């Protein structure tokens, strides 16, 4: 659908045209009209679906020139806040808008100044938001729209209390919007607490984002051999860029160091780096100034890096939802991508649970020269057959002899 049919006006349509956005994505198509009409919205949409524009465009369309803090967007991480701030600047470039990105780890004085100077849109992480409220710097009198973005992550990061406190401070007349990639019971409870007669949008069939565009591969490898295998894959595939996920800050530092020593341009990204360093690393990666970003889940959450060709789970994610979020970093906006997961004897069972949640059964691969010595237990399907295991020579021979097989005589 064309954006003009959704009720957006000329300056925004012109910008979208300049950005080369020809058609609204499904989440934009479903969200923009109800949001322009002032409805509450409860949407399941993931990063990569175009959800930022889905809520930012209606906010910009409805913005009045005078009032301060007309829209408040609450997000789980600093990176996501910065990114949304950039999206607002991009979509609002023909408008005169003042925005404040209010996150911890950055000097509060600048945020206080931005608010004092009349920021119309505030993008904030919950902690800093409540700090600013407590200092009397944030007035909600003119607030018209509240967006909770990535609500599942907000709750997973323990922001439940901050959000319920915020709820008590909101004006009665307010458009409330909640986006979430997944809907565990806690998120449903939050949606029910906050939203009023919302338009509900569920564009997810439970499949991973752009799943058809993402090739998901699983490679069996001994834990100790993962670093060497990664170097091998980098050499073989010559990916222009790769996002590697690890489980801890230490693992991110060590692996980035190991890759650098081997001659690849690699940097770590994790929550314990200073905010400036995180922003710089992210900006450099987006500008393709280095090849491999080694990140923890928190740091990489919601990152929008256009057309990332490959994502690698060096360590497995903790949950099925995190798996979805991670692999959603590739296969963005119509481009194909590959998501590789390393599994070893220790975590094969955990990966099977992730597959079960997503109703997936991926074939296990091994790479010549990196075959695991520790045995990975086979995957059994409901009929007792073995699924997803690498086929043995005997199996292949048997298969080739089956009638109808191209190699059958
Ligand atoms: P998001 O899901 O908001 O993180 O957006 C993912 C990416 O899709 C961003 O790089 C946007 O610039 C891009 N995008 C959003 N909407 C459209 C559209 N209608 N057409 C083309 N690209 C889009």
Ligands and ions found: adenosine monophosphate
Share of helical residues: 25-40%
**How much β-strand is present in the residues?**
15-25%
- Rg result: 23 Å
Structural class category: alpha/beta
| SS element count, helices | 16
Quick structural overview:
The protein has 16 helices and 16 strands. Helix 3 crosses helix 4.
Structure description:
By secondary structure, the protein is α/β, with parallel strands linked by helices. It has helices at residues 10-19, 26-36, 51-62, 78-91, 108-116, 126-134, 151-156, 160-169, 185-194, 226-237, 249-261, 275-286, 297-300, 320-327, 348-357, 393-401, and strands at residues 41-44, 71-74, 99-102, 121-124, 145-148, 175-180, 199-202, 214-220, 242-245, 266-269, 292-295, 310-313, 337-343, 364-365, 379-380, 386-387. It has a seven-stranded parallel beta sheet with strand order 3-4-2-5-6-1-7, sandwiched between helices. A seven-stranded parallel beta sheet has the order 10-11-9-12-13-8-14. Strands 15-16 form a two-stranded antiparallel ribbon. α5 (108-116) links the parallel β3 (99-102) and β4. Adenosine monophosphate binds at residues 21, 24-25, 28, 47-53, 304, 306, 333.
